[in-house]
From TrEMBL:
Localization per record: Membrane
Matches recorded under InterPro entries: Fe3_Rdtase_TM_dom, RBOH/FRE
Sample GO molecular function, one term: oxidoreductase activity
Chief localization: membrane
Protein name per the record: Ferric oxidoreductase domain-containing protein
Ferric oxidoreductase domain segment(s): 46-170
GO cellular component: plasma membrane
Keyword annotations from UniProtKB, A to Z: Membrane, Oxidoreductase, Transmembrane, Transmembrane helix
Pfam families linked: Ferric_reduct
Highest taxon of the lineage: Eukaryota
Organism: Pseudictyota dubia
Membrane topology: Multi-pass membrane protein
Residue intervals passing through the bilayer: 62-82, 127-147, 154-174, 180-200
């Protein structure tokens, strides 16, 4: 519906043309995918849902496959959004000042005449800076997928750049250049479901004593841990990661 909305916006069409429709439509799809992409890796939440009758309706055991599928869709919409904005920047560089002020008002401040300075103007906004950060994070995180089996630790840490990307996404629209920002509202619940359990695992509440650690031939690591007192009551299958 965002694409349709901007297709009917004469001011936006005068400056950006059809490119803005693709950019805004892809942005809305990215908001939804950003919400969904975190849910399959919210282990405690997935374990809870698996214990309800919803397990007969949704394939909770395929959460990793769902995460990967959503990641692919997210990457495709990111590419569409990025490409459309490159088109937007190109058109903005040659748009008339009258059309630009009609669309943005004074939100951008004085609009320079030079095309390169107009590119710099957009890239210097909060949306532009966070857009660059998100692009770098997405490229780095997605490239490392190819090293997942051989260099898992590299993949693991680099893949967490997607969390940085999601934080940048929350900030991305806060300039409200075209409309009020909304990404943060899509991500509040997934962030809470993901970060709260991770935080609790690092607190004394979840502390666990290592009894014995050995390196065996193979190479194999043997690790013995003290069983927490609350283990049987609060720990269920699937609560890992």
């Amino acid at each position: 519906y965002k694409a349709i909305k901007y297709a009917r916006n004469d001011e936006a069409q005068a400056v950006f043309g059809a490119c803005i429709c693709v950019a805004r439509g892809a942005a809305q799809a990215l908001n939804f995918n950003a919400l969904v992409i975190l849910l399959p890796i919210c282990r405690h939440f997935m374990t809870f849902l698996r214990s309800t009758k919803l397990r007969f309706l949704f394939p909770f055991d395929a959460q990793l496959e769902i995460h990967i599928l959503v990641g692919i869709v997210f990457g495709l919409f990111s590419l569409a959004h990025f490409s459309a904005h490159m088109c937007d920047f190109h058109r903005f560089a040659s748009a008339s000042e009258e059309d630009i002020y009609a669309l943005f008002g004074n939100k951008l401040g004085p609009v320079p005449e030079s095309g390169s300075e107009r590119w710099a103007l957009l890239l210097g906004t909060r949306a532009g800076i966070t857009g660059i950060i998100m692009t770098v994070c997405i490229i780095a995180a997605y490239v490392c997928i190819y090293f997942r089996r051989k260099k898992f630790n590299v993949f693991w840490y680099m893949h967490h750049l997607l969390l940085v990307m999601l934080v940048a996404l929350c900030i991305h629209g806060t300039d409200s250049l075209l409309e009020g920002y909304q990404s943060v509202f899509w991500l509040i619940a997934p962030f809470a479901l993901y970060f709260i359990p991770r935080f609790l695992r690092e607190t004394p509440f979840s502390s666990m004593k290592v009894i014995e650690a050995r390196i065996k031939p193979g190479p194999v690591a043997q690790l013995k841990l003290e069983r927490p007192k609350h283990w049987d009551k609060r720990v269920q299958a699937g609560m890992y990661g």
